[in-house]
């Protein structure tokens, strides 16, 4: 499949979901520039590789996690080539053993479905029930690529804009870890 890079939001919004449009609305309101690629649904890290190559970025893995009691929820952003080891992360954030969060909680808290997990989902976490965790290595990257709450598009934003504009607007602070 051939991919085309577009600047900003799509002009034809008839086929777009409300949550995707809300993502573009907030990015535009914050004057955050982004590039966009529309594509078939990408549900795995392997499927996302081509988009990252076109954007000339390192792959970012987004994981929705919870503690054993399912009372605390986390969104972990880490380099796509790193293996996730729960004990390494659990120790750094002072949490009981972590596991992947249930689909129902991900949808309830972030309005996201499997395969579309993204930092953009924090737009819908108005009560700050999901703690963002970012691997230090990602902060050294100039750009971050993620889905705009739907896995049929990918957007590339400046990492600095996510940290300095997007997260403060949502009232979210990230815990920085070294995995």
TrEMBL record:
Supply one GO molecular-function term. Answer: aminoacyl-tRNA deacylase activity
Q: Which Pfam family name is an example for this entry? A: tRNA_edit
Give start and end of each YbaK/aminoacyl-tRNA synthetase-associated domain. 39-164
* Family according to the record: Belongs to the PRORSD1 family.
User: Which protein, by its recorded name, is this?
Assistant: YbaK/aminoacyl-tRNA synthetase-associated domain-containing protein
């Amino acid at each position: 499949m051939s991919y085309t890079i577009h600047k900003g939001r799509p002009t034809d919004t008839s086929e777009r979901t409300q949550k995707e449009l809300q993502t573009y609305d907030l990015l535009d309101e914050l004057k955050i520039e982004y590039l966009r690629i529309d594509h078939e649904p990408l549900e795995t890290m392997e499927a996302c590789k081509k988009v990252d190559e076109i954007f000339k970025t390192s792959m970012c893995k987004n994981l929705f996690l919870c503690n054993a009691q399912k009372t605390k929820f986390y969104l972990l952003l880490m380099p796509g080539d790193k293996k996730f080891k729960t004990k390494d992360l659990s120790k750094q954030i002072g949490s009981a053993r972590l596991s992947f969060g249930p689909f129902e909680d991900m949808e309830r808290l972030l309005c996201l479905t499997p395969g579309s997990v993204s930092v953009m989902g924090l737009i819908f976490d108005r009560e700050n029930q999901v703690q963002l965790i970012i691997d230090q290595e990602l902060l050294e990257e100039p750009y971050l690529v993620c889905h705009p709450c739907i896995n049929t598009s990918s957007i590339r934003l400046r990492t600095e804009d996510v940290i300095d504009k997007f997260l403060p607007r949502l009232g979210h602070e990230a815990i920085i870890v070294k995995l």
